[in-house]
Amino acid sequence: MPVDGISASELDDLFGSVANELRIAILRELWDQYDEPLSFTELQSRVGVRDSGQFNYHLSVLVPEFVRKTERGYVLTHTGRQTIGAAVSGHFSTEDIEVDSVPAGECMFCGEELTARYEGGDVVVACAACENLITKMPVPPVTVANTPREDLPRVFGRHVLTLAHRLSRGFCKLCHGRVDSTLTVLSDEESVAYRSALDVKFECRACGDRTHLNAGAVVMDHPAVTSFLFDSGIDPREMYPWELLPLLDPETTITSEDPLELELTVRIDDGALKLTLDESANVVAYERQ
């Protein structure tokens, strides 16, 4: 069955390209060279294959998806680096990683303690008291494996913040393709945000992945927002992103339906910041009060 235009046989061919001990050895030798190309003869010698025909066959299977031929020799492509980089890290499977729930701040719904856990490749932050899911985002196994248990909530928070920034800047959290963002407030989309008016859907043009974020998280790295938070004594890097309640629960007003415009009013102490978002959740106007 085709998956977004890619047949099962094509996927099998792609993944099967690296399912070979000799090809993995080729990738590993090129990885060890960083960006320095290796000639055919040098690469063959390092891998330790005497039969040039056999070596040429296995190398050709890796070109051009995983290995690129240049005038100076062979180097890894971006896909090749990602593939072998995940392997040499020693942690690209979640099966041997277990993380018990750890305290992760205060629930924005009920004020009780949140917990964070690592489950099937995702960080899950939830509240046992009110049974609300706060966030669920993918985190690479290597990040978890190399982090002391007591530091996991902080690392999880920063990783979630990084993914939110990546999406808000237009890149897929999985394949790094371009994403389209949409306010769902006037649509039939099921909201997963704190309030339906704050729901923003991201859909990748390349892989089709869908992610929903709170509009406050989407605008978090806008200069008007970061300066307002900083002047209010708040550094998002030093706290869990899900605890930024003034930003995640602002006043909302639909100021226009066609075209759709949503106004957010973020209040902290005696100050306020008004943001106007278009239908793609881009900030088109702002005013500090």
Task: Describe the protein in words.
InterPro entries: DUF7347, DUF7351, WH-like_DNA-bd_sf, WH_DNA-bd_sf. This is Helix-turn-helix domain-containing protein. Residues 105-283 form the DUF7351 domain. The protein is elongated. 31% of the residues lie in helices and 27% in strands. The termini are far apart. The protein has helices at 8-16, 21-32, 40-47, 52-62, 78-88, 141-145, 152-168, 215-218, 223-231, 245-248, and strands at 67-69, 74-76, 99-106, 113-119, 122-127, 133-138, 179-183, 199-204, 210-214, 251-257, 260-268, 271-277, 283-288. Strands 3-4-5-6 form a 4-stranded antiparallel sheet, covered by helices on one side. The protein has a 4-stranded antiparallel sheet with strand order 10-11-12-13, with helices on one face. A 3-stranded antiparallel sheet has the order 7-8-9. The model has no long low-confidence stretch (mean pLDDT 86). A hairpin with a 5-residue loop joins β12 (271-277) and β13 (283-288). The longest helix is centred in the middle third of the chain and has 17 residues, at 152-168. It has 10 helices and 13 strands. The chain is of the alpha+beta class.
